[in-house]
Design a protein that fits this description.
Length: 737
């Protein structure tokens, strides 16, 4: 539970800037047995016999899944813990000179906490500059009682374009437009906003009884076009530089960033999106906590850039130092608080009782830093509940201190964790009017009237809300996967949509992947099998004719733990091999998989690796034949997208982003050359077997079909090209014009 401590000004402390290989190859077809040394390396016990497992059954995993779901509603919301760090090598990219903050900004004093009650800023933009989302919001703003408008506010209220500084009333929010979901037709070129009309997105895919289910988002990779067709094109335009949207200054506020602070897909997304936005000529800066567990070997030129940041906290202020450094070319600011709370020196990123307070503090610090340093971005993009308070702080505090320019895009990567907490959050962060924030239209949790919900606040206050696939946007709003936020999403549906994540093909590309012993692509697809051999050597599994089925991911109930376990035994039964790489912050789940590992230790066709290992994950994507993603729910999923790039066939459950990106070889409505995997619907053993069984049969019985499927998957373009343009469209849609 969250402590009721008083946090006052703290002393400044000095900045704390700091910073398996294979044994001999197995004879083909002969199961390999691990030597003593190998066992020591891999953590396998000397006696391969399974431990007593009688008390650890799949049912217990299922129970754990259920209880986890219940826990997620607890007031002290806890996110999964990072188990260890990735191991990417340092980038060679030459960075620019580190940014320093101009001296004049440091003259601003941290008295903003006192200024919060000041009257609203009266700076207005002409109605002609309004964007559609804001026009809709403003109409409702006028009726809300607690806006406390000044005289000038009242004069301009009807025509103002201010962002939704107060929430939209449920009854008022009659749909003027339908929810927007972002989809791309194959090889669609970016549409200039002027040409596209007021809405930033091309299609409305709101599911209804009359209309068919949403068209999944995908980017088709066409088969090689005929030469004549290519010649007929006037001049192929490089996608990165063509955009009718003026370049923007974008700030990403995030708890994770690959590869320096990665727990899951969020880290990859922030890095990949920021890269793409920069490539398209925008200026992107990323703000994240200065964790002690950062991969400092991936940060270039780390230096102190601002050492006088005082962040309001519990009526006092905590002193922070801000560091600047490049992460593979991206400009990053790392905030280090000097406080007895020791917010970010915990050895891992998540998993503490005070996680909500840790990230509320970080978000307040990030906003304070933006204000103090005089940064004036067009867009603040925040991610998940950890940074969901950014728009609340902006529109309830910093707007009145002069930050009237930025608009906020909020991306929800996982609805399951929402940052639900108690009233002390308001006291700590300086949001001083409990009766105002404990309101259904603002931060009050939809279930518990005595709790605040940070993610809900992010939805209410942001100018645009996205989740990471169109299908999941619909599932969260209409199909009960919003973990209680469904009514809030309905109220705010006019500013809500889904964008399928991209994959950073500079990192995830078998042609250049630094972790692969053998590079391969469509032209030399057979070299994939050299990686398969390398994977077997490394994991000491048998080198035989069998297909390798793999799972890479967090061992979270969300990922379908019962089905993963079943798939292991089913695969072995069907003459396949199984490789699992994953970890869980939940001790019960972890120990279950450790038991499974011991049980299967002597099986030459199976390897279970528990832990986080970026390097090994690359070899698995390259060496496996089939990638399993049997999730209960999956907002987007990166593993299936990465796998496809490596010619590894995804077997997935038809849910969220998996449904938007994987098309069944036998049953999809897509033309044959656009089918790229196997899909099952029902979350049960027979559902799983139906898809995995077909994949294994195809591998054995129709190898040429399987190969075609691999090529189809590899041809797909899941890069950041299209999602990058989607986000730019959204930014342009909401930015102050
Ligand atoms: P989520 O965000 O729910 O964790 P995603 O599929 O969106 O799932 O992203 C998972 C990312 O984390 C992928 O890049 C995957 O390779 C990586 N990953 C997950 N678990 C591990 C692990 N144990 N070791 C290495 N990489 C992992």
């Amino acid at each position: 539970m969250l402590g009721n401590r008083t946090h006052l000004m703290t002393q400044k402390t000095p900045p704390k800037g700091k910073q398996t290989d294979a044994s001999e190859a197995q004879a083909k077809g002969k199961p390999a047995k691990a030597t003593e040394k190998q066992r020591a390396q891999t953590g396998r016990p000397k006696d391969g016999k399974a431990e007593a497992l009688s008390n650890i059954t799949p049912e217990r995993v299922a129970v754990s899944a259920k209880s986890e779901s219940a826990v997620s509603r607890n007031i002290a919301d806890q996110a999964p813990e990072q188990t260890s760090s990735p191991t990417m090598a340092s980038a060679a990219k030459a960075p620019e000179a580190p940014e320093t903050i101009s001296p004049e900004v440091s003259e601003k004093k941290p008295e903003n906490a006192r200024s919060e009650a000041s009257s609203p800023d009266t700076t207005r933009v002409s109605p002609a500059q309004k964007n559609p989302v804001e026009r809709v919001s403003v109409a409702f703003t006028a009726e809300l009682p607690e806006a406390e408008p000044t005289l000038e506010d009242k004069k301009t209220l009807a025509e103002t374009d201010e962002p939704p500084s107060v929430p939209v009333n449920a009854e008022d929010a009659m749909p003027t437009t339908e929810p927007v979901f972002l989809n791309h037709a194959p090889n669609e070129e970016p549409v200039p906003m002027e040409a596209a009309g007021p809405a930033p997105v091309p299609q409305d895919l709101k599911p209804s009884e009359e209309t068919p289910p949403p068209e999944p988002e995908f980017i088709l990779a066409e088969t090689e076009p005929p030469a004549a067709q290519v010649e007929a094109k006037p001049e192929p335009t490089p996608h990165h530089t063509v955009s009718a949207i003026p370049s923007m200054f974008i700030i990403q506020i995030t708890p994770e960033l690959a590869p320096v602070a990665k727990v899951g897909g969020l880290a990859d997304v922030v890095f990949g999106l920021s890269n793409e936005l920069e490539i398209r000529g925008n200026h992107v800066e990323i703000i994240l906590p200065k964790y002690d567990c950062l991969r400092y070997d991936h940060i270039w030129g780390l230096c102190e850039t601002y050492n006088d940041l005082w962040v309001p906290w519990y009526g006092g202020a905590i002193h922070c130092t801000v560091y600047f450094g490049f992460v593979h070319g991206r400009k990053c600011f790392f905030i280090e608080p000097h406080s007895a709370d020791n917010f970010f020196n915990r050895g891992c990123i998540y998993g503490f009782n005070d996680d909500v307070m840790r990230f509320a503090f970080f978000t307040r610090a990030a906003m304070e830093f933006l204000w103090k340093s005089g940064k004036n971005p067009e867009i603040i993009h925040c991610h998940d509940w950890q940074t969901a308070l950014a728009p609340v702080f902006l529109f309830e505090i910093y707007k009145f201190l002069g930050m009237t320019h930025p608009r906020v895009c909020f991306t929800i990567h996982n609805f399951k964790h929402q940052g639900v907490t108690g009233a002390q959050l308001l006291h700590a962060t300086g949001l001083n009017r409990p009766e105002y924030y404990f309101h259904y239209d603002r931060l009050q949790d939809n279930f518990n009237p005595h709790a605040l919900n940070l993610m809900k606040g992010g939805v209410v206050y942001s100018n645009f809300v996205t989740t990471v696939s169109p299908r999941h946007a619909s599932e969260a709003k209409d199909q009960g996967q919003g973990f209680g936020l469904e009514p809030t999403l309905h109220i705010h549906h006019v500013k809500y949509g889904g964008v399928v994540n991209g994959v950073d093909y500079n990192v995830w590309n078998p042609e250049i992947d630094r972790y692969l012993p053998y590079h391969f692509g469509l032209d030399n697809i057979d070299d994939k099998y050299k990686n398969k051999k390398a994977l077997r050597d490394r994991l000491m599994i048998a080198d035989n004719e069998k297909p390798i089925v793999a799972f890479v991911g967090r061992l979270d109930p969300q990922k379908g733990l019962e089905l993963i376990r079943h798939a292991i035994f089913y695969t072995l039964h069907r003459r396949g091999q199984f490789v699992l790489l994953g970890s869980s912050p939940d001790g019960q789940i972890n120990s279950y998989f450790w038991s499974l590992k011991h049980q299967l230790n002597d099986n030459p066709d199976c390897h279970i690796e528990i832990g986080f290992n970026e390097e090994l994950s690359h070899l698995i994507y390259a060496g496996a034949d089939i990638m399993l993603v049997p999730s209960q729910f999956e907002p987007c999923g990166l593993t299936q997208l990465i796998a496809m790039r490596y010619g590894t066939i995804p077997v997935v459950r038809e849910v969220g982003g998996l449904a938007d990106t994987v098309f069944d070889k036998d049953y999809s409505y897509k033309p044959l050359h656009e089918r790229n995997g196997y899909v099952f619907k029902n979350y049960d053993y027979s559902g799983l077997e139906s898809a995995l069984g077909r994949a294994l049969s195809c591998y054995y019985d129709y190898p040429e079909h399987f190969r075609e499927l691999m090529k189809n998957a590899m041809r797909y373009d899941f890069s950041w090209k299209n999602p990058g343009q989607d986000y730019l469209n959204i930014y342009d849609y909401i930015r102050e014009k």
